[in-house]
Amino acid sequence: MIHSLFLINHTGDIFLEKHWKSVISRSVCDYFFEAKEKAVDPENVPPVLQTPHHYLITIYRGKLFFLSVIQTEVPPLFVIEFLHRVADTFQDYFGECSEVIIKDNVVTVYELLEEMLDNGFPLATESNVLKEMIRPPTILRSVVNTLTGSSNVGDTLPTGQLSNIPWRRAGVKYTNNEAYFDVIEEIDAILDKSGTTVFAEIQGVIEACVRLTGMPDLTLSFMNPRLLDDVSFHPCVRFKRWESERVLSFIPPDGNFTLMTYHVSSQNLVAIPVYVKQNISFFETGNCGRLDITIGPKQTMGKTVEGLMVTVHMPKAVLSTNLTASQGNYTYDLATKVLVWDVGKLNPQKLPNLRGSLSMQAGAPKPEENPSLNIDLKIQQLAISGLKVSRLDMYGEKYKPFKGVKYVTKAGKFQVRT
Amino acid sequence: DVLDTENEDLKEMLESNKESLKLEAMKRVVGLIAKGKNASELFPAVVKNVASKNIELKKLVYVYLVRYAEEQQDLALLSISTFQRALKDPNQFIRASALRVLSSIRVPIIVPIMMLAIKEAAADLSPYVRKTSAHAIQKLFSLDPDQKEQLIEVIEKLLKDKSTLVAGSVVMAFEEVCPDRIDLIHKNYRKLCNLLVDVEEWGQVVIISMLTRYARTQFTSPWKEGAVFDENNEKTFYDSDSEEKKGQIEAKPYIMDPDHRLLLRNTKPLLQSRNTAVVMSVAQLYWHLAPKHEVSIVTKSLVRLLRSHREVQYIVLQNIATMSIQRKGMFEPFMKSFYVRSTDATHIKTLKLEILTNLANEANISTILREFQTYVKSQDKAFAAATIQAIGRCATNISEVTDTCLNGLVLLLSNRDETVVAESVVVIKKLLQTQPTQHSEIIKHMAKLFDNITVPMARASILWLMGEYCERVPKIAPDVLRKMAKTFTIEEDIVKLQTVNLAAKLYLTNSKQTKLLTQYILNLGKYDQNYDIRDRTRFIRQLIVPSEKNGALNKYARRILLAPKPAPVLESAFKDRDRYQLGTLSHSLNIKATGYQELSDWPAVAPDQSVRNVEVIEPV
Predict the structure, then answer these.
(1) Average pLDDT of chain B?
(2) What is the CB-side half-sphere exposure of residue B93 using CA atoms within 13 A?
(3) pLDDT per position as a tens digit, B573-620
(4) What is the pLDDT of residues A147-172, one digit of tens each?
(5) Does A21 contact B at CB distance below 8 Å?
(6) CATH class of segment(s) A178-269+385-416
């Protein structure tokens, strides 16, 4: 399926290549470079391209292109999903997925790629399985390895590969047994000029960090599972139990993983935690404009809004800004024309305000459209949909684990049109 | 030379007796391979280490071997005996990795050895080794397609395997080696359906796609009820058949084959998979196999995928674009999920626009047009232009809003941005053609703007409009022609062609005022650098100017040039895209990709159902 992989940085250097079948010359990437040239922004390069003899499927992540070469019909999502899994694995192993890190760990990267595909078909993609075969680098281990010549590679087949629970490694042992769940909700919204909600919905995810000895079998139940309108699960979750009882029953992988994602029915009215009063205008004469933004709390359920940040992609003609922030700091990047106002905590008694003038390129026409505001925020200890975990039970093991659930609400794709 | 000394260094290290030095050297060699540098010269030194006890060293040697064996066939053969030995190792991991490497060495002379190894591994006690053998089948097949028959035997055997580990890999081998041997699937069909939930994600995608094809050859269409709407059509269809057959079909009401139902039932839970490819594959299965009223259960899951990575969104939106043409109802409740954000990539925005346009109907059009008003102002001008086209499509599809849209587009003609104006002109032109009555005002307005419009396509469109409706603007059209005579030589080719066109039409309707102008333009065209324009000019002159030679045709010039022309149909770029199986590469590119397997039409009469019966019913 996947013939070859090329890793390319944003300036267009191919810094790694791997072939699972015969070798394909890197000149095949020229077709991609041509498309990249045309697209201007790396985000705009079409993910699927056709060349005379091959097809190229590319993802762009962390300023890197993962370009795969395909020779015959294959579902493009299969390849895209796999490439993202590769990037996730690098992230998981090295803490980040960047050119420098990949170059520094090129041997481990190669060993991983070798295990992840056989003849272009995915072989081992579960983090638990891979980590048994190729141990992630640690400073201590690399020092020991250089001194003794010992290796990072396991010499037995990971048990996960063979059992019916391929996502969990065997023989897990901890002195402190603990299971933590983070319920994270993101509000996606588009608000119009007047503050009316054009579109809003809540997307949630439950991230788990489970360190439990042996083969624990967990059941997580909710107070109000009916809220969940659409869900997707980690392969460990038993579909049938969910269908019949609305509980999550699973033998967890060891370590960190995403247990489920969910969508809260769009019929429910979505609480919008902040309001934005804004006035952005550009004048016909004088090459200037004005900006005035105030943010205040709306439906916060009595909690504090933190990590408030406003990002604005200004029209190309805006040369510089001369603004005053009543709270927090702002920056304007002249190259990318991005204005970022880092507000911090929202104080309901003293609403944060950013105002001042914008200076425009001389002779440039007045921009047609005012730029939208993208809002980031965070509210601790609150799932805005009202979802609540009622209990977590463990079967199959005798010890008492330490359990915890945390809730947080964030702004997802939260946009205010102006 | 730096490279030479480096190679000498590495050779020395590889030939030392210190394990750590060898390992260090191999790591550097793998670094070279990763960068795409040539390290083939080191082959003799590397291959000596193939039997090393150090597992990491050995693995790196394998990486090297697989990369260079093709170029160094003779030397590669030296390593074969090591693998043959390893194939008999008591450790299943070593057996599997030996087979993996042996089958990846693309050296034709070892084909018989590979075949033997594959056959043995297919009968191995370890499912992991059997999985590896399924992968090796494809490698051997691409190395030597003549082995097909023998390989099919191995596939047949592995298809019977009950391990979830093997299922995905052997179906993959089946798809690559013998996708037409549907008969091999019959006896394994129910088992595959039942194993599906427990197979790993990647295997699920492959199996679902194969079973979609299988089902279309074995079951009858569940869409028959839909045909009731079109009764006349149905009648003629039966009439053309023999009387006997007619009776047969009508007597039998549609009952879904339980095996067909089994497939639909067992794939449905996978809509909840975290893997976007799995979700898409179930969605396409429902689209191609489920009764029409059941297809909409996939909608929510597809919409959920729009939260995923940009590339995922791209593919999913393409598929929704195709689906939403035929089944508006499936996605209409989720219309707002397709609203565009200013931070979306251009190709994502355009696809969302496409879908919104497909979803537009009398009830929601005002909401959609309000949303489009925001998009027209976008700083992303390519997107603004696409929105104008979308407005044009809404205007032709929904007659209630045609006038509103047209007025909106006319307002855009005074927009500051040239692309927006140009696109509006082009779309207005198309709309006026569909609504040719009483639009002289708009045509006049466009003539006024003509001097300020520089985009060639827009200028050409206005000229065409002037010519086509010259009798409605009898005073303006000749004046536009006069201006064009002045600038003819510096215009773009499409503009020149339309100028010639306008001249011809005016000559036929108003020769008194325009005869000289036309002759002047035809003379300019005669000596133009572009042969298309010279050709067209010569052709037009012969057609419109009476002379002895042209005779008969000249009488009809007016009827030819000013014939009522069919209005252009503004339709989705995704119309008919569903001739390709959804979710495929071919669908995404809208071309038939290499190796694409056609989805067959439902059989009129179901083939024998008993072929899927398995004699012994074993507990699962």
Answers:
(1) 87
(2) 15
(3) 888 888 999 999 999 999 999 999 999 999 988 898 889 888 765 555
(4) 555 556 665 555 555 566 778 887 88
(5) yes
(6) mainly beta
Question: What residue has token string 């003509």?
Answer: B450
**Digit-coded pLDDT (tens) for A93-124:** 998 999 999 999 999 999 999 989 998 999 88
CB contact under 8 A, B315 and A372: no
Residues 6+ apart with CB under 8 A from B488: B496, B499, B521, B524, B525
CATH of domain A2-148: 3.30.450.60
Contact A73 B596 (CB under 8 A): yes
Nearest chain A CA: its distance from B385 CA (Å): 14
Q: Which tens digits make up the pLDDT trace of B71-80?
A: 888 888 888 8
Q: Does A81 touch chain B (CB under 8 A)?
A: yes
- Segment A19-46, tens digit of pLDDT: 998 899 999 999 999 999 998 788 999 9
Q: How many CB pairs under 8 A join A and B?
A: 240
Contacting residues of A for B23, CB less than 8 Å apart: 149, 151
Q: What is the pTM of this model?
A: 0.87
Topology classification of domain A274-380: Immunoglobulin-like (2.60.40)
Percent of chain B whose predicted confidence (pLDDT) is above 90: 50
pLDDT in tens, B220-275: 999 875 444 433 344 444 444 444 444 445 556 788 999 999 999 999 999 999 99
Q: Where are the domains of chain A?
A: 2-148, 178-269+385-416, 274-380
ipTM of the prediction: 0.89
Is A42 an 8 Å CB contact of chain B? no
